[in-house]
């Protein structure tokens, strides 16, 4: 097994970097757990999909609020809707094959 030996300055830098990374993760997790109201583009960025995918999801029934001409989305409602529409092996139907004999 290898060992890494750090002097005081390197150790301080390493610990500082760990603390910054940890704080970023905590902030990111808090932000993800808070309800945000986003427009179509913002929701697409939130889910890492294209705005066209958001349009498709709206057509499939994703909830939104219409404010003037703009649709607004609650991240909590959108996440709930996405989880309700997850396809797993358990709820996925096998394709039917028609065989001519």
Question: Can you walk me through this structure?
Answer:
- This protein is mainly alpha-helical and 101 residues long.
- Helix 2 (40-47) crosses helix 3 (51-59).
- The model has no long low-confidence stretch (mean pLDDT 84).
- The relative contact order is 0.10.
- It has four helices and three strands; from the N terminus they run αβααββα.
- The protein has a domain at 38-85: Winged helix-like DNA-binding domain superfamily/Winged helix DNA-binding domain (Arc Repressor Mutant, subunit A, Orthogonal Bundle).
- It has helices spanning 8-33, 40-47, 51-59, 75-84, and strands spanning 37-38, 65-67, 70-74.
Summarize the structure.
This protein has 101 residues and is mainly α. It has helices at 8-33, 40-47, 51-59, 75-84; strands spanning 37-38, 65-67, 70-74. Strands 1-3-2 form a three-stranded antiparallel sheet.
How would you summarize the topology of this molecule?
Layout: H1 8-33, E1 37-38, H2 40-47, H3 51-59, E2 65-67, E3 70-74, H4 75-84
Antiparallel strand pairs: 1-3, 2-3
Helix pairs in contact: 2-3
């Amino acid at each position: 097994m290898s060992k890494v030996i750090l002097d005081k300055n390197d150790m301080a830098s390493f610990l500082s970097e760990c603390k910054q990374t940890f704080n970023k993760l905590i902030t990111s997790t808090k932000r993800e757990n808070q309800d945000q109201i986003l427009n179509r583009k913002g929701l697409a960025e939130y889910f890492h999909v294209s705005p066209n995918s958001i349009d498709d999801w709206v057509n499939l029934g994703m909830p939104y609020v219409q404010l003037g001409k703009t649709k607004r989305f609650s991240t909590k409602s959108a996440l709930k809707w996405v989880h309700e529409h997850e396809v797993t092996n358990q709820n996925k139907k096998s394709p039917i094959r028609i065989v001519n004999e």
